[in-house]
Amino acid sequence: MQPFEFNTVSRIVSGGGSALNLAAELDRLGVGRPLLVTDPGLMAIGLIQPLLRALEDAGVVPVVFDQVREDPPEDTVLAAKALAASSAVDGVVAVGGGSSMDVAKVVAVLLRGAQPLSSLYGVGNVQGGRLPLVLVPTTAGTGSEVTPVAVITTGATTKAGVSSPVLLPDVAVLDPDLTLGLPPAVTAMTGVDAMVHAIEAYTSRHKKNPISDMLAVRALELLARHIRTAVTDGGNRAAREAMLLGACLAGQAFANAPVAAVHALAYPLGGHYHIPHGLSNSLVLPSVLAFNARSAAPLYAELAEVVTGSAQVGSDEAKTQALIDGLR
Question: Which end of the chain is more exposed for a tag (fewer CB within 10 A), N or C?
Fold first, then answer.
């Protein structure tokens, strides 16, 4: 066995209604006035207001920044930082999809240190610490609640990533109740994103390890088994809970065994054409799997049964084709 390292968040809280207990998590971290980062859509449908009331009832005074949009640009990050700095916040909470969580991660770093945003981009460039950070996903896809990465839009057609263990939150809260109202298209696209995380982590040559493998397989099992139900019956709590957990496990897997060609192709598609990340993943996934099969067929064969839910026979190449067909 090759030596390896595995890093993840120190605390995960999962269960229906768990987001209503944010105050207890914040109290444990010594936070009484958090910046709450979210998006206008979640505010408009009333998803955030019960959480705000629960915080206020517990004596927590949240400062709300609700202007995050998909593929958040630098000016959104800086606006959130400015609001937080002028409001003397002592922690950061994100309730939303990957965009809100990515903004929250970067803002938590900017509020603690003197680094300009531009100096954070790349791997290992964060110096110092951050404010206490709690992440609450409202989609089952990005896994951002358990990854040390944030992606920010830097220009009309460009994005840049910040990658540092400092971005791992203190707490990730998985509340399936927050995902019950996700539209079918969003459910499908974010679910595919999570499945790609699991597939690429399992087949990565770089930093692949027994723990990431275990998480990737279990994640893919949960996601493949429940994604169709979650899309067609969005109110199915069991399916939503399985998808949220699957996305989280896949996030932990690829945070330690990085994604590869699918994401490498999907990122520029999203940057240039401004299409959702999960959709761009799905567009290139079959072609990448077919291309990689010449080297990765044995690993793809191992995943075929997980995705299809039935034993596969034949060569590794035949099983790889079954995997591709099962993902279509």
Answer: N
